[in-house]
Amino acid sequence: MTGSIRRVHKSKDKMRPTIEDVPPFYRPYLAKVEGDNVEWILTQARQETLSVLENIDEAKANYAYADGKWTIKSLIQHIVDSEVVFSLLLYHLSNVFINSNAY
Q: CA-to-CA distance for 76 and 24, rounded, in angstroms?
């Protein structure tokens, strides 16, 4: 399926793609995620992440094991920045899809 978009059945209770819906490279990652409701999965992941991060003190958050290496703070900022970019990309692609009368 590389290079193409496969239409996934839209359903409120079944939003998870099947293993065949994703390129082979991503299948091991998809297999690690439990559940079918993407919104619930993302909410749980957010809560777990916040729980871990809230327990990191300032000294640990700023620690780098060597000069020029990333700290926990810089890593989290990188993840946040990446999520913003991906969100904007998906927003743009969804608008293109909706406005293309593709469905």
A: 28
One domain, residues 41 and 66: no
Write down the pTM of the prediction: 0.58
10-residue averages of pLDDT along the chain (103 residues): 41 68 89 84 91 95 95 95 93 82 58
Query: Cβ contacts of residue 19 below 8 Å, gap of 6+?
Result: 27, 30, 31
Range of the structural domain that residue 97 is part of: 57-103
Query: How many domains, in total, are found in the chain?
Result: 2
Structural contact between residues 45 and 34, judged by C-beta atoms closer than 8 angstroms: no
